[in-house]
Design a protein that fits this description.
With 273 residues, the chain is α/β, with parallel strands linked by helices. Helices cover 43% and strands 18% of the residues. The strands form two sheets. The chain has a five-stranded parallel beta sheet with strand order 3-2-4-1-5, sandwiched between helices. A five-stranded mixed beta sheet has the order 6-7-10-8-9. The radius of gyration is 23 Å and the shape is elongated. The protein starts with a strand and ends with a helix.
Length: 273
C-alpha cells in the first residue's frame, strides 16, 4: 500500500521548510494543494517539478476518489496554503478515506502559526486550547467565549485584520481584561508580536490598523488562591457600578480577580441595580 504524506510548508519565510519535506515533495508522484498557485511559488523556489492537483474546500468531494485511485499506484503529498495541513484547512475527510482504504498516513512536521505564536507569546505553553477562527458574528463569538471563560488553559484563536478590534472587544467583555499576545505576519518581513492586556491591544490597534495573518494568544483563567468572600465581591460591584463600568464588562473583570464564575457575578450585578 502507498503513503499519503501530510507536509508542513512555510507560513512566510521559505527557509523554514525542512530537508525531509523537500525530499518528500520531490519523490511523490503528485502533490495535492489547497491553492496550486501558492504552492507553485514554493516548488519553483526549490526547483521541484512534481505535478500539482488542487484540493480545497469546494473540490474535496470530487478529488478524494481520484486521489485514492492515484494512491493505488504511488505515494502522494498533501499541503495547505501555508503551515501544517488539516489545521484549519481541508483534509480530514481525505485522511479518513485514505486510512479506511488501508493506506499509510505520515506527517512531515514543520511550521504552524498557532504554535509559533504560542511559544513567543510569553504566556504558559504547557496547557493550551486551539479554537481556530473566532466566529464572524458578535453573538456567536460571545457564545463561544462564554464556553471557555472558566478554563485555565491558554487560548489560541485566529482572526482577520478587519475583525480584530471587534473580536478583542468581545474577548474583553466575556473573559475580562486578561493578558494576551497578538502575533501578526509571523516569520515575514513585517512580523509583529504585541504583548499586553486586551485593553492595551485595543488601544494599540485602534491607532495602528493591522494587516496580515493574525493569531491571538489569550491567558486562561488565572488560578485564584482564595475566592473572595461575598461581601468583598459586592463592595467591588458597587465600586465598579459607580464608576460606570457596564455590567457585562464588570462581571468579566471581577471574574478574573475574584475567582467567582462570571455568570454568578453578572446575576449579582443585575440584582443590585
Amino acid at each position: 500500500m502507498s503513503t499519503l504524506y501530510l507536509v508542513a510548508t512555510p507560513i512566510g519565510n521559505l527557509d523554514d521548510i525542512s530537508y525531509r519535506a523537500l525530499r518528500i515533495l520531490r519523490e511523490v508522484s503528485c502533490i495535492a494543494a489547497e491553492d496550486t498557485r501558492q504552492t507553485k511559488k514554493l516548488l519553483n523556489h526549490y526547483d521541484i517539478q512534481t505535478p500539482l492537483i488542487s484540493f480545497h474546500e469546494h473540490s474535496k468531494q470530487g478529488r478524494i476518489n481520484q486521489l485514492l485511485t492515484r494512491l493505488e499506484q504511488s505515494d502522494l503529498a498533501l499541503v495547505s496554503d501555508a503551515g501544517t495541513p488539516l489545521v484549519n484547512d481541508p483534509g480530514y475527510e481525505l485522511v479518513q478515506a485514505v486510512l479506511e482504504a488501508g493506506h499509510t498516513v505520515s506527517p512531515i512536521p514543520g511550521p504552524n502559526a498557532a504554535i509559533a505564536a504560542l511559544i513567543a507569546s510569553g504566556l504558559p505553553a504547557d496547557n493550551f486550547l486551539y479554537l481556530g477562527y473566532l466566529p464572524r458574528k458578535s453573538s456567536e463569538r460571545r457564545r463561544m467565549l462564554g464556553e471557555v471563560i472558566d478554563l485555565p488553559f491558554t487560548l489560541l484563536f485566529l482572526e482577520t485584520p478587519h475583525r480584530l478590534l471587534a473580536g478583542l472587544e468581545d474577548i474583553k467583555e466575556q473573559l475580562g481584561d486578561r493578558n494576551l499576545a497578538v502575533a501578526r505576519e509571523l516569520t515575514k518581513l513585517h512580523e509583529e508580536i504585541f504583548r499586553g492586556t486586551i485593553s492595551q491591544a485595543i488601544h494599540h490597534y485602534t491607532n495602528n490598523p493591522p494587516k496580515g495573518e493574525i493569531t491571538l494568544v489569550v491567558a486562561g483563567k488565572p488560578m485564584i488562591e482564595e475566592t473572595w468572600p461575598e461581601h468583598r465581591l459586592t463592595a467591588a460591584i458597587k465600586e465598579g457600578t459607580l464608576s460606570g463600568t457596564p455590567p457585562a464588562e464588570l462581571a468579566g473583570q471581577l471574574a478574573v480577580e475574584s475567582g467567582w464564575p462570571r455568570r454568578e457575578i453578572y446575576k449579582l450585578i443585575i440584582s443590585m441595580e
